[in-house]
Amino acid sequence: MDDLKTKYLGQIAEAGDENVLEAIRVAAVGKKGEVALKMRELGKMTPEERQVAGPALNALKDEINSALAAKKAALADAALDERLRTEWLDVTLPSRPHRQGSIHPVSQATEELTAIFAELGFSVAEGPRIETDWHNFDALNIPGHHPARAEMDTFYMHRAEGDNRPPHVLRTHTSPVQIRSMELQGAPIRVICPGGVYRADYDQTHTPMFHQVEGLAIDTDISMANLKWVLEEFVKAFFEVDGVDLRFRASHFPFTEPSAEVDIRCSWEGGQLKIGEGDDWLEILGSGMVHPQVIAAGGIDPEVYQGFAFGMGIDRIAMLKYGIPDLRAFFDSDLRWLRHYGFAALDMPNLHGGLSR
Ligand code: PHE
User: How many folded domains does the chain comprise?
Assistant: First the structure.
């Protein structure tokens, strides 16, 4: 037994890794190991011999097991020390240059137009993307049976079974924020409301989620002339050119009277979208004088106040300004596209420093 003890404790002390240690364990105290074989010999002994040999064998087994456990812990400590040594990091070294994130053209365009309208005295208002049927439609003079509801390809929210109230909708335009702003602040008002809107539509210039900016000005002496001036000032500042051809087309919206749609001159030659030249027109906004019933729905007296409103496609004007021909790519999250069309972070657009450097 003394021989066994010397032999195995010696081997354990020498063991260099866990595999060797496990082999020693099996050979020494495993089911068919040397200590087990010795235990089997107990049966052949006289009771007196057995009384001495039995406890001695158990003690040997215990001693080998503790030595194994201690060595195992020591090996683990050594492995950790080795890892810490090789994974050492000099935190005083300068960082490696790495790819910078960039600002999405929609965010960039939103910052730019916010800066321009701020200069014109408009503050920013916001509303929810999941909107009540009333704010999105009824309050805007679009009653339940109105064909405009079908035209808008509305996404309706799920309604619990047995619930007969009109379902909420993913807002189809930013115009409900007109109502919310009137409810919230009363007259006079000068706000823009940028944000995401939703319609079931998908082609080169339409995606099911896109962005609009609503404009609303309410006061006691506002006319269509103010609307036209504000839009022309905006377009000049946004596209950073002195002359942009705008086309005001008489149109119809339930929430404005009279109404006009505005197109901007452009060309699509060779898959390149260019603004200010060519024979094509791209529609960028709808506008008009706010319908008296809409002003009343917002809780303001239409006998005293009137105003103009417009709703402009942010993605559309970003496409035009930055020559990006396909709207669908805006929302593909393709890193190559984002690096190509994205803008430097931390370069906040402002009118004196330049909108889009
Ligand atoms: N809400 C209209 C649309 O999405 C745009 C619009 C806004 C028209 C305000 C007139 C006044 O098409």
Answer: 2
How many whole angstroms from 287 Cα to the centroid of ligand 1?
Answer: 6
**How do residues 1-41 score in pLDDT, each as one tens digit?**
888 899 999 999 999 888 999 999 999 998 888 988 888 88
Q: Calculate how far, in angstroms, residue 23's C-alpha sits from the geometric centre of ligand 1.
A: 80
Cα dihedral 195, 283, 230, 216, rounded to 10, equals: -40
Distance CA 100, CA 345 (A): 8
For ligand 1, atom 4, the nearest C-alpha belongs to 173
The ligand 1 atom nearest the CA atom of 285: 5
* Tokens representing residue 189 in the block: 């008002």
Q: Rounded to a whole number, what is the largest CA-CA distance in the chain?
A: 121
Asked if the structure places residue 356 within a domain, the reply is no
Could you tell me if the CB of 307 is within 6 A of ligand 1?
A: no
Q: How many angstroms separate the alpha carbon of residue 154 from the centre of ligand 1?
A: 15
Backbone angles phi, psi at 166, to 5 degrees: -60, 140
Tell me how far the alpha carbon of residue 237 lies from the centroid of ligand 1, in angstroms: 22
Specify whether 74 is located in the same domain as 173.
no
Report angle CA 248, 251, 255 to the nearest 5 degrees. Answer: 115
Q: How many angstroms separate the CA atoms of 326 and 205, rounded?
A: 6
Which tens digit of pLDDT belongs to each residue from 215-248?
Answer: 999 999 999 999 999 999 999 899 887 777 889 9
- Asked if 126 and 43 sit in the same domain, the reply is no
